[in-house]
Amino acid sequence: MATSLRKPTFNSCPSSSTETDDEGVRGTCEDASICKRFAVSIGYWDDPYIQHLVRPSKERKAPEINRGYFARVHGINQLTKAFLQKTECHCQVINLGAGMDTTFWILKDQDLLPSKYFEVDFPMIVTRKLQSIKFKPLLSKPILELHSEDTFQIDGHMLDSKRYAIIGADLRDLSELEEKLKKCNMNTQLPTLLITECVLVYMTPEQSANLIKWAANSFGTAMFINYEQVNMDDRFGQIMIEHLRRRQCDLAGVETCKSLESQKERLLSNGWETASAMNMMELYSKLPRTEVSRFGGDHLLTFSRLMLSQKLQPLTFLKLIYKSPE
Ligand SMILES: C[S@@+](CC[C@H](N)C(=O)[O-])C[C@H]1O[C@@H](n2cnc3c(N)ncnc32)[C@H](O)[C@@H]1O
């Protein structure tokens, strides 16, 4: 049902067996966002919006976790900004498995909004995020300000406005995904940045390959930023798998998370022309020293298993982004 944001009606989500099966995967949204909120609360980076979407952490997080999240957020932000600058914001961003991501609001503050910013996640996660947007003016006002009309489409699993859309859909169902994105005016002619931040690992290799192939075939000019694990064959990786399995969260895509090479290969064999990847140790070593020294120096980190891989066609600016610090 469609109604306005100012007076929206909210339908609760129906529950089904698939939704129950995916509960462990959806739980990872809370894990990631609570860690980010904690790091923000102790000054790792600025994000005035996250506290309106995410509950505070019950316990302190270890410095390695905070630094890992800092590097992860910083890395993805740098690549996103480079894409926006290169396209002069005449582009769209599609954040797949966005969870409680706040990039839309931050980009608006920085005057760096793309033509349209899309988020996709499971309907239940979207419903929760929509509840916060609906009741927190700090979140809803920026969306309304950018919207030329008085009303816009909103229901329990979706909000569509001029510059921002959030869609409840299962990324494993590509026809549903495409149909919903098109309904929200996704423009396949615009340069498009697709982001999956710790998302593909929860799908089987076949499902993530299909999603990557769909992305490669759907847009004339596109870049894909993927952030997820590597080196999952080692002891640390095995502990991570066992820990998540105990919480009913299966890392169905772990096979692809062997190495930077296997990550790049997945992109290259599914329609993308070039791919590059770096592990987080390397990325961390290239962070501005002024930033790193703010939170305790250059200690060796334990997140070398995480990686960022990017693919772009035909823009070629990525190598410029991570220059060594002076
Ligand atoms: C680890 S969280 C990361 C959230 C966010 N990208 C971040 O980094 O803060 C993984 C997210 O992917 C979403 N997700 C995983 N599989 C999905 C699927 N098949 N369809 C839609 N969303 C999915 C989960 O619901 C969750 O929000």
From TrEMBL:
Keyword S-adenosyl-L-methionine applies: yes
Function: Methylates the carboxyl group of the C-terminal leucine residue of protein phosphatase 2A catalytic subunits to form alpha-leucine ester residues.
Protein name in the entry: Leucine carboxyl methyltransferase 1
Enzyme Commission number(s): 2.1.1.233
Stretch list, region Disordered: 1-26
Gene Ontology MF annotations: protein C-terminal leucine carboxyl O-methyltransferase activity
Homology family: Belongs to the methyltransferase superfamily. LCMT family.
Record organism: Phyllostomus discolor
GO biological process: methylation; regulation of signal transduction
